Description:
Elements: E1 6-9, H1 22-37, H2 46-52, H3 57-64, H4 73-89, H5 99-108, E2 112-117, H6 121-130, E3 139-142, H7 151-158, E4 168-172, H8 175-183, E5 187-191, H9 198-201, E6 206-208, H10 220-238, E7 243-250, H11 255-268, E8 275-277, E9 280-283, E10 290-296
Amino acid sequence: MTDVKGIAFDLDGTLYNSTTTSYDAILDGFREFSARVGADLIAPDWDMVKRLIGTPSHQFFPALLPEKYKDKWKILQKGVSDSEVARLERGDGRTYDGVYETLDALKSRGYLLGCLTNASGHYFNTVLDECDLRKYFDVWDCLGMKPGLNKSDVLKDWIPVLGGPDSLFYVGDRDADIHAAHYAGIEAVGFLLGYGYRQELEVAESMIDHFPDLMRNLTSAKRMVFKAANFITWRLRDESEDLTVSIKPDGTADSGHFLNRLQEELMIRNHKFESVSGDKLKFGTGSEDEVEIRVSG
C-alpha cells in the first residue's frame, strides 16, 4: 500500500469535460436573460468564459454581465444551469478519457476519494448523477452558493477524513486549485487537459496530461520523479535534443535512487538518453545545455 490514503478532485476541467455543454448553455442563458430584462445583450466569447471557469458562481456570473446588470446575475445563473442540466440529461456530458478506469483502480486499492468544486449544487449533483460519478466519492462539496467558504477551508476539514496531511493530495486544472491545496497544507497535481495553462500549474508537485498517469503519482517521491520527467520532456520538446540533466541532492536525499526512478519514467515516455554518468543524464551528442534538478529527502 502506498503512503497516500486519500485523493480529492476538482470537477470541471478535471473529471468532467464541461466544454461539451458549458458554452452552449451560456449562450442559451444569455438569450433568456436578455428576454427577461428587455435588453439585447451579447454573450461573452469563449476565451473570456474559459478564463473565468473555476471561480465560484457568485463571482463567475456577475463577471459575464455588463455593470448595469451584475446585480441580476442569479437570473443568468438559473438560465445557464437549466440549459446545462437539460444537456446533461439528454446525454451530452463527457468525462475525460481514462477517468472511470482510474477511479475504479483507486477504489479497488482502497483509496478514499473526494470531489470539491466551485460549481452550484444543482449543476454539481446533475453531473455526478448523469455521468455516474457519485459512487466513487466518500466525501464531496460544492461551493458555488457559499460565498464565505473556499476550497482550502474544505480541504483542511477533509485532511483527517481522507488520511492526514501527508496522505492526501488534490487534483485540479487551475492555479487556484493548486494554491488551495497548498494553503491547506497538502500537495497538488495539475491536470493539463482542463482550462488552465501549463505555466499556471507549474507550482504543483506534479502535472499530468493523461488521467491514468495519476496512478504513477501516488506518493510524494513518485510525484517528484514525475515532475522532473515533465520538466525534461518540455525542455527537449521546446528547445533542443541536446541536454544534460544533473541531479543534486538536498539533505539526506538519495540521488542514485531518484536517478534510477527517473530513468524508468523517461523510458515509459520513450525518451532515449545517450549516457548516464554519475548523477547526470545526457540527451543527444552535444549536450551543451545543462540543467540542475534538486532532490529533497
